[in-house]
Amino acid sequence: MGCSPDSLRAWCHQAERDAGQRVGLTSAEKDRIKELERENRELRTANEILKKASAYFAAAELDRPFKR
């Protein structure tokens, strides 16, 4: 077949998990976890950007002369 025995074994095990014949995560569950991890990374990055922007604008506000 042109693949290693380990690759073929892993594919067979995954096919059995997808069919419900073996315990473990299905391909759909693995894909969903990957998607959630990617989204989590993006949200953490966005959160860091917002924190830095907030700190920058807060510092700029303190540097402005006080108006009465």
UniProtKB/TrEMBL annotation:
Keywords: Coiled coil. It comes from the Bacteria. The keyword Coiled coil applies. Residues 26-56 form a coiled coil. InterPro entries: Homeodomain-like_sf (IPR009057), WH-like_DNA-bd_sf (IPR036388). This is Transposase. It comes from Sulfitobacter sediminilitoris.
